[in-house]
TrEMBL record:
NCBIfam families referenced in this protein's UniProt entry, alphabetically: yfcH
Coiled coil: none
Domain of life: Bacteria
Pfam families: DUF1731, Epimerase
Name recorded for this polypeptide: TIGR01777 family protein
Residue span(s) of domain NAD-dependent epimerase/dehydratase: 4-221
Amino acid sequence: MKLVIPGGTGQVGTVLDRALTAAGHEVVILTRRPAGERHLPWDGRTPGPWAAAVDGADVVINLAGRSVSCRYTPANLREMMDSRVESARVVGEAIAAAARPPRVWLQMSTATVYAHRFDAPNDEATGVIGGGEPGVPRYWSYSVRIAEEWERAQQRAATPSTRKVALRAAMVMSPDRGGVFDVLLRMARLGLGGPVAGGAQYISWIHEDDFVRAVEFLIGRDDLDGPVNLAAPAPLPQRAFMRALRTAWGMPVGLPATKWMAEIGALALRSDTELLLKSRRVVPGRLLDAGFAFEHPHWPEAAADLVRQVRAR
């Protein structure tokens, strides 16, 4: 297959590029900073010569969007919104103009679209969309709006010959440097991987192998479109999540952190506490109903596998 991946130089794009290329597929990356022969320049906003790669491709997987690992200032939130909506819009325009449009367009979305909750898991059929939860910072609702507008930009695209899937992805765990697992493991190794603000908030996650396999599964399933949750079927509270990670590394101590300590830590990391404090209890209802089988359904085993890879490197 020929696959075009806009925004494919980040952590998730690296995971997909590595696996799909190893499987013998032709992968073209659209990026603002081309650094290889398979990279084409684009700005994520305007049509250009890059659109020729979309014409005749089998699959487009759009991952483009400003990183969420930043301070959630009004300017950064606006850039998150614009970069996602505009890239989805221009990808849709390229597909609509193609003489030989791709048969499927997988559009990155996020599990953050669901409400901050503890009482029940969110699947695609019964999940509660966030934005109006009491007792949470008001700006959290903007993250939900970003996800909704991101998906809406794909839905609005006039691409009748192309099946469209929105990937409501949880945190993708890979051993790569700079990824979310690398950050969490560094905290655990320093003895800082204890409960944050009590640790009752749920963490949804997916092992890189299952993320790739789910993408391949969705490419091959012509009967699946619309939003699909890409998350392991067993989300767990943050305190249990970090305990399993500490166990996998062999670190017996994990110092707890209060909410204000988390604020200081997020400031030091130039990140935001929403990533630590929002309860994302998301399950892959549609994948499971369609017969997808996870290789890494439980976090303790997945963490041990990832730690083995880190140590091997």
